[in-house]
Amino acid sequence: MSASSYQYRLLGFSPELNWRPLSLVSPMPPARICSVCGLVPQTTCYLLCGHLLCERCCQRCRVDGAVVCPLDSDVCTDDDVLWRSFPVESLTRIQVKGAQKDGNVDESMNTLR
């Protein structure tokens, strides 16, 4: 893999894309990446402290009806949590360096469709 590619794993978009390593030409915006596990989820949970969590990590951080940030221990009520969706259509604008399969990378550049 070339040094100019950025590797991510998507979650929640489709069975074909979930957990599959993708090498992108440009970095994914930080506001799309879970601050805990590093996945790029379709649905994100923004906490008051500024950290972003995927649904899975957010559910793991629930304590007594609130979300406790695993990075700085800030407590957020459900009213404090902002949920956002990353539209599936946005994926079609992402340039893929090469999809990995069995440890090998297809070096052709294309977009997800």
UniProtKB/TrEMBL annotation:
At the highest ranks, the source species' classification is: Eukaryota, Metazoa, Ecdysozoa, Arthropoda, Chelicerata
User: Does the record bear Secreted in its keywords?
Assistant: no
PROSITE patterns found in the cross-reference section? ZF_RING_2
The molecular function terms of the Gene Ontology recorded here are: zinc ion binding
Database matches in InterPro entries: Znf_RING, Znf_RING/FYVE/PHD
Please state what the protein is called. Answer: RING-type domain-containing protein
RING-type domain residues are: 34-73
Which species is the source of this protein?
Answer: Haemaphysalis longicornis (Bush tick)
Is Zinc tagged as a keyword?
yes
Q: Give start-end of the signal peptide.
A: none
State the UniProt keywords alphabetically. Metal-binding, Zinc, Zinc-finger
